[in-house]
Amino acid sequence: MTDDGQLLQQYARERSESAFGELVTRHIDLVYSTALRVAGGDRHLAEDVTQVVFMDLARKARGLTQRDLQSAGVTFGYICRIERGTRMPSVEVIRRLAGALGVSAAWLETGEEDRWQQFSHGELAAIHAALVRAGGPASLRLAAELGALLAQRAEHELGADELP
Questions:
Q1: Tell me, which fold does domain 4-110 have in CATH?
Q2: Dihedral of CA 151/152/158/159: which sign?
Q3: Which sign does the torsion angle of CA 122, 125, 129, 131 carry?
């Protein structure tokens, strides 16, 4: 088994998404549970914090500074506030920063590629409707995820995803 240091070096040297994904897989439960405890049980805040932790790790592993990420169209001050935890980035900002790091936003958060990427908008809408009809907590959580993705795709297609 490759140790964490070797995986981090492999990611930094080769931009190996599989190496960084393995690190995320190994440590996401610990990072999330710690963030959840510190956030007083706020799941959404804990998820945001977890994503920022791995985004910061990816940046530092590649030897990038916060200023280097400005190329993503995000100000230096905003990046500093995200990493200090005083500002939670929007989905669009996460997408931009992930792009500057050479990874997808979904991969940055979970170590996996976007599982919905392969489906068309119409297929996603049909899956969403079926999940809503099925009901139950797990189906409704997945339906909420899909609903958000459908909204993001629609905004992107309309060009409404630009930052002010």
A1: 434 Repressor (Amino-terminal Domain) (1.10.260)
A2: positive
A3: positive
Quote the pTM value: 0.59
Q: Give the CA dihedral 117, 162, 55, 10, nearest 10 degrees.
A: 60
Q: Where does the chain have alpha helices with state H?
A: 4-14, 17-38, 43-61, 76-84, 91-101, 105-110, 121-134, 137-158
State the pLDDT confidence band at 147, using cuts at 50, 70 and 90. Answer: confident
* 42 Cβ neighbours under 8 A, 6+ residues apart: 36
What number is the average pLDDT over the span 113-130? Answer: 66
Tokens representing 42 are: 């706020």
pLDDT in the model for residue 163: 42
* Average pLDDT of the segment spanning 79-90: 80
Question: Position of tokens 């910061």?
Answer: 56
Residue 76 to residue 65: CA distance in whole angstroms: 10
- Alpha-carbon torsion 22, 24, 27, 30, what sign? negative
Domain map (residue ranges) of the chain: 4-110, 121-158
